[in-house]
Amino acid sequence: MPKTKIFCDIADSKTIKEFNKKTIVDGFTTNPSLMRKAGAKSYEKYSKLLLKICKKKPISLEVFSDNINEMEKQALIINTWGKNIYVKIPVINSKGKFTGQLIKRLNKKKIKLNITAVYTVSQVKKINKCLDNRTKSIISIFSGRMADAGKDPVPIIKKAVQITNGKNRVEILWASTREPYNYVQAQKLGCQIITVPPKIIEKISNFGKSFDQLTKDTVKGFLVDSRKSNFKI
Ligand code: E4P
Description:
By secondary structure, the chain is α/β, with parallel strands linked by helices. The protein contains 11 helices and 8 strands. α5 (100-108) links the parallel β4 (85-90) and β5 (113-118). The protein is globular and about 70 Å long. The termini are far apart.
């Protein structure tokens, strides 16, 4: 089975510093919400701080305009900040306009792209048509948010992997990971990348406990808590 790379889904600079040292982490993804959560005031200054910490591993930085021309300007600027950047472009703007023409123009300029907020096979097909195979690019499928809405991401990811199969520079990324097992699912489906919040990365690092050990740990946990609470009947 080909390796599924693990990216860390975070914008907090201290966490990036810590996780950049881990060999299990192959790269990073950020988004405007994570940047806000990290307390970024100036998008440029904060991004440059992250790029000082993460100099080699790929890092995705997203445009944040809702206007396609403005997105293009932002993408061109962001791309100049470092060689390891993937410029993240949402598949549509908030009005539902497909960013395909922009994706094509940036792809022609050999700018590495991460097309984000993708939910459907039809979006994957359209994006795939806009990408050549000369420049590395990523298509991020928001599996967890789908599952949050009661939808199964597995068939969509499976199809996306098939659609992009002929293009070795176009990678499918399992985004919005909700639990450690999503890594196993992503691997089985042949996803090239999964992006994972730091706490879940730690759990994946500890994979491998036997069922025997799990049952003992579970029973011990209940026992410890009962004793701590001094339960009596
Ligand atoms: C992907 O690149 C996104 O940053 C991320 O996976 C979104 O995850 P969320 O649904 O937990 O916000």
